[in-house]
């Protein structure tokens, strides 16, 4: 048994020593030479430059008001800021915010849900996908904003016309991405599951859907702002409530400060939603390599 | 026992139909380790795909323990050259996949997968995603996710092909040590003659396309074997030379027929 040519231990010993090397601990941060000021990696300089940029632009706007241009048309940053504060203590603003958020959420849910479901179905049903292809392309080519007046005729002036407008904008983005995502699933992975006796349903749930998840999540992220666009546009045309209505009321009364304040608040709303979807995406896709530079465990 | 009888496979997709395999007969005893060598494109991998049930043969039959195989089968495991781990699953969930598909409870399949992971020296990496592992580690995971559900026949398609020489050697040793306790029936495709002889009870040589079986030689080296030192054994050298002449003739014929 002690002969290296016959013992099991001798077969295993070099193996385990060769294979079990633990991943090296992450390299301790080393003191590096300071980055040049205009290096794109110099975070400190970037932040200082950004703040300086914002101060210069906003400062010029504030200073130039009624000197270089008429503040009636362009308002000023301080006036807008004051109006934002007034909006934030106005219960009416919160009602409009709720109405718009509700329409947007519902429109997004219907559009994205429908897009994902139809994308999955057509990816699995090649004949119908091919048959419908020109029609889907034709529908996609309609500038859906142009449907807005008709939507109001069809759905009335209530919230459903806004919801539908948002949904049509979202739908095609998620639909085409889901279709492409399911179609790009690696067949070899499906075969692995098939050899392990997976049912078609298991292959779909455990291989296709997770594999397409990055496509689907990306489309969800891209399409979210379009839900807001659709809803605001619908509110512009006919409505008696919502942020679009509020904005429209201010601008038709030549209250540029008020309109600018609402635009600013819409921007903040969208930034917050994007931050949330980014966080969801990062969590759901944490299995993806963050960058090529990420260390790989060595064996 | 795995019986392959009169297998023919023709691919008719292109301009001219291509015959990949012609009249292939091969019987592998239960618990036997057979390696399959041959020139590139001789249909070695096609044969494995047919046995796995992922594609049907144009004619002929495949039987396991006397039972005809139609489609994929619980008794047949297939280890591919590319590791094909699911990138969105952690190591332990990749290894446990077959048990999950079979409806084994979470705690039990994790326990079982954990045992296998430890056995191949990957303990500590259970929660790592495939992109965080090296090629050798991924290939070890690829192997044990098939071993975990104990198919009686295991097909291996150049599983060590993409690895560097040292990793290859250590994985060959690992595979042998596991197989010597498991004794499943193995059909292992490789283009590396050294690997073919080192692992096998029997080395089967295939001809250039259309793939036919040219000869089968028993490897008279007793087990357990020491992968790291067996290449100097006279039995090894003798068989290597014999097979190399045969293989070279096949390669030569291939060269002439295509030029």
CA(first)-CA(last) distance of chain B: 41 Å
- Oligomer kind: heterodimer
Beta-strand portion of chain A reads: under 5%
What is the annotated CATH architecture of chain A? Orthogonal Bundle
Helix content range of the residues of chain B, please?
25-40%
Note the beta-strand portion of chain B: 15-25%
Taking the alpha carbons of the first and last residues of chain A, their distance comes to 29 Å
| CATH superfamily descriptor of chain A | MetI-like
Helix segment tally of chain A: 12
Q: Report the biggest beta sheet of chain A as strand number plus sense, adding barrel if it closes.
A: none
Short overview:
Chain A has 299 residues and is an all-alpha fold.
Keywords:
heterodimer, A: 299 residues, mainly alpha, MetI-like fold, 12 helices, 0% strand, flat, B: 259 residues, alpha/beta, Rossmann fold, 2 domains, six-stranded mixed sheet, four-stranded antiparallel sheet, 8 helices
How are the SSEs ordered, and which strands pair?
The complex is a heterodimer of chains A (299) and B (259).
Chain A: H1 8-19, H2 43-64, H3 71-74, H4 77-88, H5 91-124, H6 126-141, H7 148-155, H8 159-183, H9 187-195, H10 200-237, H11 243-252, H12 256-284
Chain B: E1 2-11, E2 18-28, E3 33-37, H1 44-52, E4 59-64, E5 67-68, E6 76-79, H2 91-95, H3 97-101, H4 106-119, H5 135-147, E7 153-157, H6 165-182, E8 185-189, H7 193-199, E9 202-206, E10 213-218, H8 234-258
Parallel strand pairs in B: 3-8, 3-9, 6-7, 7-8
Antiparallel strand pairs in B: 1-2, 1-4, 4-5, 9-10
Helix pairs in contact in B: 7-8
């Amino acid at each position: 048994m002690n002969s290296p040519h016959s013992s099991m231990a001798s077969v295993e010993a070099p193996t385990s020593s060769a294979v079990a090397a633990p991943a090296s601990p992450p390299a301790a941060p080393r003191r590096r030479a300071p980055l040049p000021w205009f290096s794109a990696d110099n975070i400190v300089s970037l932040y200082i430059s950004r703040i300086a940029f914002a101060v210069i632009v906003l400062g010029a706007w504030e200073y130039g008001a009624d000197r270089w241009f008429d503040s009636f048309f362009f308002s000023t940053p301080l006036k807008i800021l004051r109006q934002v504060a007034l909006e934030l203590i106005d219960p009416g603003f919160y009602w409009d915010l709720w109405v718009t958020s509700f329409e947007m959420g519902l429109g997004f849910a219907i559009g994205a849900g429908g897009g994902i479901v139809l994308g999955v179905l057509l990816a699995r049903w090649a004949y119908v996908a091919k048959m419908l292809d020109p029609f889907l392309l034709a529908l996609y080519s309609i500038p859906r904003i142009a449907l807005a007046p008709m939507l109001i005729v069809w759905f009335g002036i209530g919230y459903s016309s806004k919801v539908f407008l948002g949904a049509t904008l979202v739908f095609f983005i998620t639909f085409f991405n889901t279709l492409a995502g399911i179609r790009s699933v690696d067949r070899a992975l499906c075969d692995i599951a098939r050899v392990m006796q997976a049912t078609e349903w298991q292959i779909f749930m455990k291989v296709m859907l997770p594999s397409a998840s990055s496509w689907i999540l990306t489309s969800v992220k891209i399409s979210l702002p379009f839900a807001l666009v659709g809803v605001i546009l619908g509110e512009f045309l006919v409505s008696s409530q919502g942020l679009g209505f509020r904005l429209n009321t201010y601008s038709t009364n030549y209250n540029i400060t008020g309109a600018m304040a609402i635009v600013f608040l819409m921007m903040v709303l969208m930034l917050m939603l994007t931050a949330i979807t980014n966080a969801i995406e990062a969590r759901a896709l944490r299995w993806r390599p963050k960058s090529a530079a990420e260390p790989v465990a060595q064996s | 026992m795995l019986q392959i009888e009169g297998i023919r496979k023709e691919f008719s997709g292109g301009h001219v139909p291509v015959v990949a395999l012609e009249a292939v007969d091969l019987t592998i005893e239960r618990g036997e380790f057979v390696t399959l060598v041959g020139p590139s494109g001789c249909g070695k991998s096609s044969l494995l795909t047919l046995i796995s049930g992922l594609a049907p043969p144009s004619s002929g039959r495949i039987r396991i323990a006397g039972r005809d195989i139609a489609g994929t089968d619980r008794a047949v495991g297939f280890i591919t050259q590319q590791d094909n781990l699911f990138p969105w699953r952690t190591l332990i969930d990749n290894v446990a996949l077959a048990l999950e598909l079979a409806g084994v409870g979470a705690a039990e399949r994790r326990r079982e997968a954990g045992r296998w992971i430890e056995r191949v020296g990957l303990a500590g990496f259970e929660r790592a995603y495939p992109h965080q592992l090296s090629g050798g580690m991924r290939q070890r995971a690829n192997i044990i996710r098939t071993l975990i559900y104990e198919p009686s026949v295991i097909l291996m398609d150049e599983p060590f092909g993409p690895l560097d020489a040292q990793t290859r050697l250590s994985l060959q040793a690992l595979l042998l040590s596991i197989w010597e306790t498991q004794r499943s029936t193995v059909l292992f495709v490789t283009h590396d003659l050294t690997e073919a002889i080192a692992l096998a009870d029997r080395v089967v040589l295939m001809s250039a396309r259309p793939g036919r079986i040219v000869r089968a030689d028993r490897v008279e080296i007793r087990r357990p074997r020491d992968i790291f030192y067996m290449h100097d054994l006279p039995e090894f050298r003798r068989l290597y030379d014999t097979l190399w002449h045969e293989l070279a003739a096949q390669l030569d014929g291939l060269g002439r027929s295509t030029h």
